[in-house]
Amino acid sequence: MSRPTPTTPGDRPVGRAPVPAAAAAAPTVHGYPRQGRRRELKRALERHWSGALDAAGLLGVAADLRRERWQTLAAAGITEVPVGDPLYDHVLDLTVMLGALPDRYVAAGADADDPAAAALARSFAAARGTAELAPLELTKWFDTNYHYLVPELGRSTRFRLDPAALLNQVAQAQELGLSPRPVLLGPYSYLRLAKPDPAGSGTPLDLLDPLTDVYADLLGRLASAGVEWVQLDEPVAVTGLDPAGLDALAGTYRRLSAVTGRPRLLVAGYFDRLGEALEPLVASGIDGLGVDLTGRGAADLDRLAGEHAPSGLAGLRLVAGVVDGRNVWRTDLDQALGVLERLAPRVGRLDVAPSCSLIHVPIDVGLETGLDPELRGWLAFADQKLAEVALLARGLREGREAVTDELGAARRARRPPHVAADPGAGRPGADRGGDAGPDGAPGAGRRPGRAAAHRARAAP
Q1: Has the keyword Repeat been applied to this entry (predicted)?
Q2: What is the pTM of this model?
């Protein structure tokens, strides 16, 4: 693999220059439920596994659902769309793209008719097992109800990048006139969430340097495909990294930021506050930062909006997660807009987003039947959260007075007289359109804690 060339001080990566916050404020999302409004993807997977639907048919269903998702986002004013949605699990798809599946699964695709079918056969062998092979370990994605398939990595792992599936999604979005923003798990979190190869030696973190080279190669290929922004998620950054972990995280992004001709880099943390990771990430040379400002993540607000904010914020795109992406309740829009108004003077560009991907909530309150009308008005699933994000972006661009009526309506809907105000009381719609993890767990999870459930996996 050819090693990407670092930039010189006067050489800037491909992408958009920072613009005034008031002019640039736009709605965006980290992800959207991918199962379909009628659980089409789940049914297609089951048909494929039973032999009733071939690989081409399954991939066709997935492409149709992507188009539907992106059109929903575009209708909400979101034209920079997240791409890279998996069929089954995003960590598994990344492992496949990196060529890092354990060798024992490779033979599963030997009899396939074409490369796409072979790749699917290998993926599903790793995900579900075969008559001869156990699947990869399944564990919780932080403290959500989503589960992911744990990579097995060691010193003998040799990465072999094959981004064809991702590039196909990029091209599909571009054909629809949309701007694709690939969203991938970042290299540091990927390794921290992996486990050592049982048959090998060393630890996954031994691979950080070669894996960073692979990501640099991927950035170059995405730039060649016309991609302007790439989002790399680093949720491990919210788990309270020690100094060595912070150095490794920041060093990774210093190297990626120094790649010539790359797309602009947006690094996102979620489920909690970035805390001590804020400063090194901002200083690493990245172009954008996604922050969760709900729940405990709100503790980052004073750091970002205060007098001692990281100095690099002034030239940065900040994606402010002010709409909770993990609960099913309406946002306090007055409070969220106040947060945005505090941040706007501090950053080069301020965009409005949910706190994390919306895969953790159902799709649309309108699909619910039999609910108390006042309770229905208090709920916000993925589509309603899109509307909230769009409204907040408009309020930030045009001023609070431009959305006075909408703020008032939202205020009234949030506090009906006989509905409990406890956001943790019940999870309406958990089985109606939100994503399930690979084990079928419902998509509407609990409010985030400090990601304590994942400390063992993320520990050095």
Answers
A1: yes
A2: 0.88
